[in-house]
Design a protein that fits this description.
There is one protein chain. By secondary structure, the chain is an all-alpha fold. The chain is built from 3 helices and no strands.
Length: 76
């Protein structure tokens, strides 16, 4: 169980790094580098930006749950 949670934690950590870099103005602006960024005229009200926020929140919560579960498994 600990190995599975560790693998999930590593994967979610890598996904979180990519998702944060994809956010325009919040990360490194990686989406602009590849031409796939949301236009600045659309702002944060676009559907793409809201969905990116939701996906980032989902993976952030999953990452946090993995951390707590691993800590609990190690101590018990």
């Amino acid at each position: 169980m600990e190995i599975a949670l560790s693998v999930i934690l590593i994967i979610t950590s890598l996904v979180m790094v990519v998702l944060v870099l994809l956010h325009k103005g919040k990360g490194g602006g990686l989406s602009d580098l590849f031409g796939g960024g949301v236009s600045s005229t659309l702002g944060s009200s676009s559907v793409v930006e809201r969905n990116l926020d939701r996906i980032t929140i989902f993976f952030g919560v999953l990452w946090f749950v993995c951390i707590v579960a691993l800590a609990w498994l190690i101590t018990h």
